[in-house]
Amino acid sequence: MSMINQLKDVKTKDFAKHCYESSSVDKLREASAGSADQSEMEHWGLTEGQWEEAIVAALADHEAKE
């Protein structure tokens, strides 16, 4: 999880870890291609930018292990 570990914001990092542990590469690719999930943003207390940063980091870490 090297990309996730580089995240500075605690909420963004926590959400990225959650995404990494609970989502497949395909699901993360789909999420990164679409718009931010409003319900996840509200639940985690994230801005759209934080949500996108977390998704990208989780996807990068998944792809790095392939």
Describe the fold and architecture.
This protein is mostly helical and 66 residues long. It has one domain (5-62). It is 77% helix and 0% strand. It has 5 helices and no strands. Helix 2 (10-22) packs across helix 5 and helix 3 packs antiparallel against helix 5.
What is the compact description of this entry?
The chain has helices at residues 2-5, 10-22, 25-33, 38-44, 48-65.
- Overall pLDDT level: 95
What is the helix fraction of residues, given as a range? Answer: over 70%
Biggest sheet architecture: none
**Pattern of helices and strands:** HHHHH
- Give the N-to-C terminal Cα separation: 12 Å
> Can you tell me the number of structural domains?
1
Strand content: under 5%
Model regions low in confidence, pLDDT < 50 over at least 5 residues: none
What is the β-strand count? 0
What would the principal axes of the Cα set say about the shape?
globular
DSSP helical segment count: 5
Radius of gyration: 11 Å
> From the helix content, strand content and strand pairing, which structural class follows?
mainly alpha
Walk me through the topology:
Blueprint: H1 2-5, H2 10-22, H3 25-33, H4 38-44, H5 48-65
Spell out the key features of this protein.
about 70 residues; about 0% strand; about 75% helix; single chain; mainly alpha
